[in-house]
Amino acid sequence: MSASTPTLAAARNLEHWNSAAQQYAKAGDLFAPEARLLTLYAADLKRWSMLDLGIGAGRTTRHFAPAAGSYLGIDYAPAMVEQARQNCPAFADRIQTADARCLDMIPSGSMDFVLFSFNGLDCIEPSDREQVLREVRRVLRPGGIFSFSAHNLYSVPFRGSWPMPPLNVGKPLESVYRLAKRTKRNLRIRNLVKNRNTDAILRRGWAFFPDGGESYTVPLMYVAPGFQKEQLEACGLRLFSMQDGDCREILGTHPPSTDSWLYYLAERV
Ligand SMILES: C[S@@+](CC[C@H](N)C(=O)[O-])C[C@H]1O[C@@H](n2cnc3c(N)ncnc32)[C@H](O)[C@@H]1O
To answer: How distant is the alpha carbon of residue 21 from its chain centre?
Structure first.
């Protein structure tokens, strides 16, 4: 199997991630659901082989690599890989440049745990998303775990605006900056959705919008939980947990969460 010929969206994405390496170098902490995962699987991880996809500047490497029995971190942006190696020198030899769409260097069934954190899966265009899920399924052993987060389609303000960030009187300049950024994003998303058939998008369960990065021009997937569950199942992965940003279990709950992104846990069937 080989990664498909890059489309414009894929090329734009790769260009963006290569240029964002410095900015990502600063990010260090885990998000609450990731920290919880690390605690939940701490005992198993010690003997598990772990594949960390789209590691960026090594944010998750720092926390998961020391905890895992064996660890391999990959990213397809060479600048990110370089940054990750600098940030995590103890694991530099376990960090590689590779594309999640083509994991040929990893034997089938050899991984116990695969992570694709911080919505990295959403950088991949719709036509290739299934290919990544099939590759994840192939490298996992039966019963192996796949954890990832994804942008939530129900967070997109098709008929309104993204909520404004709260004002912090102690940091007026930062507040104004954040407000201006959010206003820009609101105007942008309104433009993006104004000529679209919202009902059709919601029925389909996903959208691919240029909404990422500092300038909101990087194409990103937004998926509805129901769509994501079906897609995982079609690829031989059974969804068994879905959490919002506060670690609340929301699998099958109604009305659907409107959190910006959701955390999925699936098992290799
Ligand atoms: C939002 S960043 C997250 C980085 C890191 N996981 C973190 O949490 O800080 C998404 C990362 O996924 C990587 N990525 C996107 N598509 C990829 C692909 N097809 N294969 C490997 N990495 C990919 C990007 O280069 C980028 O570093």
So the answer is: 16
64 lines ligand 1 (CB under 6 A): no
Mutate to test the pocket of ligand 1, among 15, 38, 55 (most ligand atoms within 8 A of CB): 55
Closest-CA residue, ligand 1 atom 27, reads 56
Cα 170 to ligand 1 centre (Å): 34
Rounded CA-CA distance 111/97 in Å is 18
For the Cβ of 149 lying below 6 angstroms from any atom of ligand 1, the answer is: no
* Whole-number pLDDT of residue 3: 45
Q: Confirm or reject: Cβ of 24 under 6 Å from ligand 1.
A: yes
Domain boundaries, the chain: 8-153+218-268
Ligand 1 atom closest to residue 18's alpha carbon, by position in its atom list: 25
Q: Which of 151, 119, 147, 152 is nearest to 241 (CA)?
A: 147
Check: pTM over 0.90? Answer yes or no.
yes
Q: What is the mean pLDDT of the chain?
A: 92
Query: Rounded CA gap, 146 and 138, in Å?
Result: 11
Is residue 211 exposed (0-12), middle (13-18) or buried (19+ Cβ within 10 Å)?
buried
- For residue 120 and ligand 1, the question of a CB distance below 6 A is answered with yes
For 83, the 3-state DSSP assignment is helix
What does the alpha-carbon distance between residue 32 and residue 28 come to, in Å, rounded to a whole number? Answer: 13
CATH code of 8-153+218-268, in short, is: 3.40.50.150
